[in-house]
């Protein structure tokens, strides 16, 4: 059960529980990570109502279904039931992807008073200028590609570690960025599923994409960039 | 085969002066005389066969104002904008346009708009005030034949709706080759007519279809649709027409003129 911390800021990690110990290998399942800010802290860019539903309902559902699929997979592997193993792949990709993507997303956002919206400095800022010309150009590109996603999906700023450059990508449904390349690391992801904005922005996804930049946590993206490009 | 003109309210793009001009142009062309100026075709936004508050409390007026009034309207307007620039796509029925722009799985830019316009027209007509309950007579018989029982069908429909990953639609279709009903799900804006399935009912499972009324509670939305909204009258009409004529179903009237060999469905209100 997620507990919001009002007074302190917690580091966000993927919650891991070890459940049953079966033979020599324990199945690790997952739990909902806490948000490092209150539900209402990102207003007016993203409403508290959306943040609460998004975290407590949508993300939790992905985790619940991911854990269920993992348990079924664990059992199928032990029984040598290949057909079930293969059949479960789409549920794992969807729900596991949902967990991965949302865990990154909560880190990508930050209240304005905690640095949300402040442009990236240091090596990421420089890399953005080199790869895209300016931060404004990058923001426009990400917003345009996010608006153009048909159906549900995500828009990403990633680091291609092989080509050593920044890339803007989109993924469908809950496909994580790694589906675009094993060497592509997510720095920033923006959820463009309707549940991420509909209650507040209705059909106007471009407005959501315009406003979200005010609460984007470039510090986190910079941290990942520095670590992955070292 | 009898053909009736479907009487519906159209929201015509009245600000465009080209519309009446294009009718003249069409007549000119069919007589063989040559005209130099461009001829264009437009689709209209059909209003649902009930007031926007007619589906309350199961689908709110507010939801319909946004879903029909903004989103569906947007598809029609964007489509018309695209068609203005296209000479090749002139003169298609909506069915034909969906199939052509689907382009065997490599969709053209117009596909999303025309398919979503089609899908939403069909969706409003798949519902009615005081809907739900069960089909009767012929359709019920067909469902029992193809699914075992109505309960089995309903379970299958609900399960399919809830197991869709991402955005999409759920359909009750008549499979032409197999001559049987089936429940299918499609992603994003895909429509079964591209695979020669004949739609009988659909349900919009994009989040925007239920989020304002049900937030993330998909199961409740689908349940309310089955219990209170689904129009078995509409479904019965379609199935009977399919069986009698065994031809393609045409949905949206063709605004560029009246083509005598296009068949329209008369809808009971």
From TrEMBL, chain A:
Its EC number is 1.15.1.1. Residues 29-110 form the Manganese/iron superoxide dismutase N-terminal domain. One of its GO terms (cellular component) is mitochondrial matrix. Residues 120-221 form the Manganese/iron superoxide dismutase C-terminal domain. It is found in: Mitochondrion matrix. Mn(2+) binds at residues 54, 102, 191, 195. InterPro entries: Fe/Mn_Superoxide_Dismutase, Mn/Fe_SOD, Mn/Fe_SOD_BS, Mn/Fe_SOD_C, Mn/Fe_SOD_N, Mn/Fe_SOD_N_sf, SOD_C_sf. GO terms for molecular function: manganese ion binding; superoxide dismutase activity. It catalyses: 2 superoxide + 2 H(+) = H2O2 + O2. It is an enzyme of class 1 (oxidoreductase). PROSITE patterns: SOD_MN. Keywords: Manganese, Metal-binding, Mitochondrion, Oxidoreductase. It holds the Pfam family Sod_Fe_N. Its cofactor is Mn(2+). The keyword Kinase does not apply. Belongs to the iron/manganese superoxide dismutase family. Destroys radicals which are normally produced within the cells and which are toxic to biological systems. Destroys superoxide anion radicals which are normally produced within the cells and which are toxic to biological systems. Homotetramer. This is Superoxide dismutase.
From TrEMBL, chain B:
GO terms for molecular function: metal ion binding; superoxide dismutase activity. Keywords: Chloroplast, Metal-binding, Oxidoreductase, Plastid. GO terms for cellular component: chloroplast nucleoid. Residues 43-127 form the Manganese/iron superoxide dismutase N-terminal domain. Residues 139-236 form the Manganese/iron superoxide dismutase C-terminal domain. It holds the Pfam family Sod_Fe_C. Its EC number is 1.15.1.1. InterPro entries: Mn/Fe_SOD, Mn/Fe_SOD_BS, Mn/Fe_SOD_C, Mn/Fe_SOD_N, Mn/Fe_SOD_N_sf, SOD_C_sf. Its cofactor is Fe cation. Gene3D superfamilies: Fe,Mn superoxide dismutase (SOD) domain (1.10.287.990), Iron/manganese superoxide dismutase, C-terminal domain (3.55.40.20). It is found in: Plastid, Chloroplast. It comes from the Eukaryota. Belongs to the iron/manganese superoxide dismutase family. This is superoxide dismutase. It comes from Hibiscus syriacus.
